[in-house]
Each structure stands twice: as C-alpha cells, then as structure tokens.
Amino acid sequence: MRRRIAAANWKMHKTAEQTRAYLERLSAQPLPSGVDVVIAPPFTSLAAAAPLVRASGLALGAQTMHWELQGAFTGEISAPMLLEFGVRYVILGHSERRAYCGETDASVNRKVKTALDQGLVPIVAVGETLDERARGETAAKVMRQTRAAFEGIAATALTGVVLAYEPIWAIGTGQNCDPAEADGVMATIRSCVAGLADTPILYGGSMNAENVGAYVSRPNIDGGLVGGASLDPDGFAALIRNAA
Ligand code: 13P
Q1: DSSP-assigned letters across all residues of the chain
Q2: Rounded to two decimals, what is the model's pTM?
Q3: Which of 54, 180, 200, 220 has a 20 to 30 A CA-CA distance from 84?
Q4: Mind listing the domains of the chain with CATH numbers?
Q5: What is the mean pLDDT of each run of 10 residues along the chain (244 residues)?
Q6: Pick the catalytic residue: 96, 103, 128, 166?
C-alpha cells in the first residue's frame, strides 16, 4: 500500500515571518492521519518552519540542493545543511530549475544519488512542455528524464524515492491535466525503470482542493506536488483533507 502525500512547493514565496503565521494557522486545523504532508519553503524559512512542522507532525522539504556536500559553490546549499534543520524531502529536477537555473538530467542524477546517500527522500520531478505534448512526445520525454534521474542506482535503493509528474503546461496556468491522462503518463513512468512499482508518484500542475480527489482516485496517483494552492493554509488544509 503506497502512502498518500500532499507536498507544498512554495517556490519563492513567504518570508520567515509569513512562514510562522502560515504554519500556526495550518496546524490549528484538523488534518487526516492517512496523508503525509510535506512543506517545502524557501531555504531562508527552513529555520522558522522546522519547530512548527515537527510539533504538528508534518515533514519539512527543500526545493533543491547541490550534489556536493561542501565546497566552492557560491549560493548553493548542501544535503548536510538541510539535514541540520530536520529536512526529510528534497525536490529535485523541478521544471523551473531545469528552465531557469541550468538543471540537467545529469545534475538531477548526481543530486538523487547524494540525497539517497545522505538519507533524504528525493522528490524527482519530470514533465513535458505544451509543444512536446502536441508532438506526441510526452512518454518519450518523461521516460528519458526518469531513466536519467535514476541511472546507476540499484532498483533496491529506489524504495526511498518519490516521483512527481508535472506537465509544464499545467503549472501555474489553471489548466490542470485530465486525471486519466496523468494516470496514463504515470503508469509509463512507473514501468520504465525497475524498482518503481511501490514508489509514490505525485501529480503537479494546477492541483487544488476541488480537483485533488479526481487524481488520487486513480491507480497510479498517490498525491500532489502543489504550488499556488498550497500558499493559503486554509486552502491547503482542505486539499489535504480531500486527498485522504
Ligand atoms: P501549481 O500548483 O502552482 O500549478 O505549481 C505546481 C508545481 O510546480 C509544484 O511543484
């Protein structure tokens, strides 16, 4: 039985002060026990988030990290730095990092290896653009990204990973992917690398409290990686309840 996961990717939103206010409000609400809730704030809010996340039984995530443990990499953050704050999950290969920050299949692979070595749970994000979808290249793209992310990693080591299918054209657009279509792509992802049969796969792309139920009722969809709809604590609490 795979775990349900609702992961909040705040992207570049919320100061430390806003993070505290959000988490106080979120933890005041009844949340179902059957859903693992991950909060991935900006790095600068991890210290503020850590005690509140711990006290309310949520998990802390980061939005990226470097593959090296330390070194001359100006502006970067390493796995040990994340672990010091109690971070358990790290999003790797998000399409915004690939598009704007030079993230490649090869760097995602190095980061996945480091995350697993260090005891972090990587949430590996894959997905196609609108043009790639129109050209019928969705399956080829997500298979390439998935195989590359896990290249050189034994199937037995993949029990500790989470995947996210995020069609790029659905991110932040209000145009969510049809749940049946997303489920089909996730079946492709699940079967393209040995060891992913029990891996939680999250859907990401304009997911909200109203549409989450239609996703998690599908056989290959285990929850969501949520951007915009995770920024309001009441709305995200409703999403978590509807994911249960
Ligand atoms: P939205 O939920 O804002 O579409 O963002 C999805 C996403 O990119 C989560 O990582």
Answers
A1: -PPEEEEEE--S---HHHHHHHHHHHHTS---TTEEEEEE--GGGHHHHHHHHHHTT-EEEES---SSSSSS-TT---HHHHHHTTEEEEEES-HHHHHHS---HHHHHHHHHHHHHHT-EEEEEE---HHHHHTT-HHHHHHHHHHHHTTT--GGGGGG-EEEE--GGGTTTS-PPPHHHHHHHHHHHHHHSTT-TT--EEE-SS--TTTHHHHHTSTT--EEEESGGGSSHHHHHHHHHHH-
A2: 0.98
A3: 200
A4: 4-243 (3.20.20.70)
A5: 94 98 96 96 98 96 98 98 98 98 98 98 98 98 98 94 98 97 97 95 98 97 98 98 96
A6: 166
